[in-house]
User: Which sequence fits this backbone?
């Protein structure tokens, strides 16, 4: 695992600690059962809400493999609106998705400990980013095709709840 | 031997399915108990799906997975799947124009209230108990909306009151040898070996009836939703029932072939993909092409969009007739244009009479939610160089419709008299304005303009009926203002070029109605605008052109009855009956006149004949009930009002009269029920207060709500308009 990712996850854990102490936490855009269906098993949930953005992180651990679904939603400045994902975060060319929010794109993401798909999109003046993947590269339980289909499904759920 | 083996295997397979079925039953119980433990039973434990109307066999919540996915069906029904995927039924929940509205309901009142909408838009979410706070139901099914096994698992209909008035069975694609439904999926091989049992599981005769469609294509706002009272929302099924296509209503202005909802919206077409459901290479459309261009445009479903536009522009659904001209200051209506000579001069101030006929739509123009859908008349007058002289019904640069356009829209208002934006139906207290043209009827739209003093050659008048799904302000609310322009479809149009100077009669266009029908439609338009004198004059023209046409005389009587010219109406009815002695329409109005003239025997006989010809006529049943009631035959009166209620569970006259009749017959419990229904469903007497508040603040709509209004840019005419309104 690369150092910067470790640091990010650690920070996320620290930030989310207060949220985790609540018995009933929920993600405003996706319930845990749906996330579990996407990840393939019971999912833990961490929620972070700041003035800048809201984040939900669902995780399912199967043996040594970790499946993550992260949803980030924030407000965007109107002049800067657009759903083009930051190229540096994509390992493949972003493809436009029709019928998700006002507009959305999907691309692959490939880090040492995370291999999956990223959907970035917009509903009016809010943008969302969804990251779905596995800690294992070329995971037979979560093929690229499955990841794309599921990421698209989650994006549709998130965009739908933002309308 | 082989047959015996096959039978044994088959028997074994079925026993496996039956065991699986039992296991599913117990899984359902377990699932339901789990959901029940935290479910919000706001509307009572006995009404878990309220404010929606569905029921499910077995009563328990059902696992979403009990509904086989559409891809399972697609294996053998590729054509159906392909069509359905782009159709509104499959996108009924996920599409943003619905989500925006229902999300607001959820945010403002609570998710449990969304059962009202989702009973039709997302039945699995309702029946699985997913619409409750902190639900732990996997919502994967959201993307499929009304999926194959939703419609094809419905086992009965509760009533024609709508709001999801169906009884869902446990989804099954196969019945066993005894006809018992086997829950869930079975191997395709088994279906192929027993296609008859597959058909018995997934098809019901009533799927082909309009009542099936009524379970969702009729809606009301119950008190449990709005914390106020019952308000009728839309009545597409009733509109069909009252149309010429149902053959249930003797009072229509025209007659036509029997057609159901499915006849138009599920027309058979050649298949392009393999489908075992096809017959002779054709398949009943699962595209359900209708009016929604917004969802296919949003999703990029070009095939569905093209089908929808083609559907809207086919079928000779509307007729646009630039019927006549009136020179301001004169009373003479020059018309029908094209059939009479006339002259126009520069500086003439002309009133154009445009008649829009809902000719072949089996429901109103536009049906259902007219607060979101936008149909309107665009009327343009151009000079010979193409320069606009007058233009009404244009789209402004921001995409919004000219607010003074003649539109077929409505304005529901809340208790502050404010327009209910974003389809927040739970806040509706009244409808300030509701303009439509019912099936078979016509409306007159009048435009006034001045012929320019320097005009040369000719002017061309064009009237179009346009349609946009959805109104621009709602599109802006859903998508923000930076969305692409949504399609505007021209439903029907007619142009006429008029010479400056003399004009002679010419040949009609192929789509034009014959002159007698043009007069008839003008008369219907006048009648619906309460212009009785003009209506009678128009219908008298029909008599002159078609003296053999019994309905022309009846139309005169239909106009004269509300005008209280009963003697003259009776004469007209007699002429109609002389031409057509068993004409149910004439007999019905004859009965009304006989009632007024105190001829109860004749009144009864005529209504009995109407009911024998049209047993599903609401009006005939209602009036026959009244006749029996007035004659003291309470038993028969009850029979008629109960028959009426079977046709329309929300008929106020039935509630009112049955409450009294039951009471007189000692049926106190039933009387109380009917009384309560009457009080609940009758129009709120304060509704007008809310409407008037809105109309005071919106003069453009206030003007439109006057039946006899004039569209003009000429300042002087505004005074005339006010004077007309004051009269």
Assistant:
């Amino acid at each position: 695992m690369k150092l910067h990712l470790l640091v990010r996850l650690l920070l996320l854990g620290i930030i989310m600690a207060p949220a985790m102490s609540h018995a009933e936490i929920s993600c405003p855009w996706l319930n845990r059962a749906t996330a579990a269906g996407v990840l393939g098993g019971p999912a833990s949930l961490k929620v972070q809400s700041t003035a800048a953005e809201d984040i939900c992180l669902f995780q399912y651990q199967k043996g040594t493999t970790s499946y993550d679904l992260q949803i980030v939603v924030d407000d965007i400045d109107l002049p800067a609106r657009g759903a083009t994902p930051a190229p540096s975060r994509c390992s493949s060319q972003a493809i436009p998705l029709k019928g998700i929010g006002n507009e959305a794109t999907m691309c692959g993401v490939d880090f040492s400990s995370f291999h999956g798909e990223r959907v970035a999109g917009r509903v009016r003046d809010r943008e969302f980013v969804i990251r779905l993947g596995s800690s294992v590269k070329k995971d037979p339980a979560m093929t690229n095709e499955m990841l794309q289909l599921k990421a698209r499904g989650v994006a549709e759920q998130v965009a739908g709840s933002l309308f | 031997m082989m047959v015996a083996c096959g039978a044994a295997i088959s028997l074994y397979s079925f026993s496996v399915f039956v065991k699986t079925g039992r296991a599913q039953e117990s899984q359902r119980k377990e699932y339901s108990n789990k959901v029940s433990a935290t479910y919000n039973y706001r509307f009572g434990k006995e009404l878990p799906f309220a404010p929606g109307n569905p029921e499910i066999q077995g009563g328990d919540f059902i696992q979403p997975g009990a509904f086989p996915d559409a891809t399972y069906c697609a294996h053998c029904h590729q054509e159906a799947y392909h069509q359905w995927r782009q159709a509104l039924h499959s996108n009924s929940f996920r599409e943003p124009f619905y989500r925006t509205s229902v999300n607001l309901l959820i945010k403002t009142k609570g998710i449990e209230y969304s059962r009202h909408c989702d009973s039709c838009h997302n039945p699995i979410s309702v029946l699985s108990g997913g619409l409750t706070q902190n639900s732990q139901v996997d919502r994967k099914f959201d993307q499929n909306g009304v999926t194959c096994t939703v419609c094809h698992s419905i086992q009965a209909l509760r009533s024609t009151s709508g709001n999801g008035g169906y009884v869902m069975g446990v989804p099954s694609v196969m019945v066993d040898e005894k006809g018992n439904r086997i829950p869930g999926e079975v191997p395709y091989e088994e279906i192929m070996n027993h296609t008859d049992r597959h058909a018995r599981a997934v098809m019901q005769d009533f799927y082909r009836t309009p009542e099936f469609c009524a379970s969702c294509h009729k809606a009301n706002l119950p008190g449990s939703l709005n914390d106020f009272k019952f308000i009728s929302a839309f009545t597409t099924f009733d509109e069909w029932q009252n149309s010429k296509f149902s053959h249930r209503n003797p009072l229509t202005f025209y007659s036509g072939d029997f057609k159901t909802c499915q006849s138009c919206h599920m027309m058979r077409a050649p298949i392009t993909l393999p489908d075992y459901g096809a017959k002779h290479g054709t398949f009943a459309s699962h595209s359900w092409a209708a009016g929604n261009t917004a969802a296919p445009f949003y999703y990029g479903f070009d095939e569905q969009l093209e089908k929808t536009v083609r559907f809207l522009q086919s079928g000779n659904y509307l007729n646009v007739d630039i019927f006549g001209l009136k020179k301001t200051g004169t009373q003479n209506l020059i018309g029908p244009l094209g059939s009479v000579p006339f002259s126009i001069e520069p500086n003439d101030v002309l009133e154009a009479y445009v008649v829009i006929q809902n000719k072949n739509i089996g429901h109103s123009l536009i049906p259902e939610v007219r607060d979101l859908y936008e149909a309107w008349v665009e009327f343009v007058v151009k000079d010979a160089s193409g320069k606009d002289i007058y233009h009404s019904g244009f789209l402004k640069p921001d995409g919004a419709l000219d607010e003074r356009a003649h539109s077929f829209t409505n304005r529901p208002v809340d208790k502050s008299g404010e327009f209910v934006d974003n389809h927040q139906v739970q806040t509706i207290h009244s409808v300030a304005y509701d303009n439509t043209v019912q099936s078979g009827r016509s409306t007159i739209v009048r435009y006034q303009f001045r012929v320019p003093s320097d005009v040369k050659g000719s002017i061309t008048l064009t009237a179009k009926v346009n349609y946009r799904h959805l109104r621009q302000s709602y599109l802006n609310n859903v998508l923000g203002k930076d969305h692409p322009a949504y399609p505007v479809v021209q439903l029907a149009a007619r142009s006429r070029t008029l010479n400056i100077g003399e004009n002679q009669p010419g040949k009609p266009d192929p789509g034009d109605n014959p002159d007698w029908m043009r007069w008839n439609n003008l008369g219907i338009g006048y009648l619906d605008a309460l212009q009785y004198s003009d209506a009678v004059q128009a219908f008298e023209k029909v008599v002159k052109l078609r003296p053999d046409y019994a309905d022309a005389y009846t139309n005169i009587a239909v106009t004269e009855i509300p005008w209280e010219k009963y003697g003259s109406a009776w004469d007209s009815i007699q002429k109609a009956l002389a031409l057509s002695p068993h004409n149910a329409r004439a007999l019905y109005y004859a009965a009304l006149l006989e009632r007024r003239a105190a001829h109860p025997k004749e009144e009864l006989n005529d209504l009995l004949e109407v009911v024998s010809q049209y047993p599903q006529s609401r009006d005939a049943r209602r009036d026959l009930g009244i006749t029996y009631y007035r004659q003291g035959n309470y038993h028969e009166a009850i029979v008629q009002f109960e028959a009426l209620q079977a046709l329309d569970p929300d008929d106020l006259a039935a509630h009112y009269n049955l409450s009294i009749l039951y009471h007189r017959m000692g049926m106190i419990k039933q009387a109380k029920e009917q009384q309560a229904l009457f009080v609940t469903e009758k129009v709120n007497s304060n509704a007008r207060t809310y409407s008037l508040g809105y109309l005071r603040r919106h003069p453009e709509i206030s003007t439109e709500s006057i039946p006899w209004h004039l569209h003009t840019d000429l300042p002087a005419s505004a005074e005339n308009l006010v004077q007309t309104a004051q009269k």
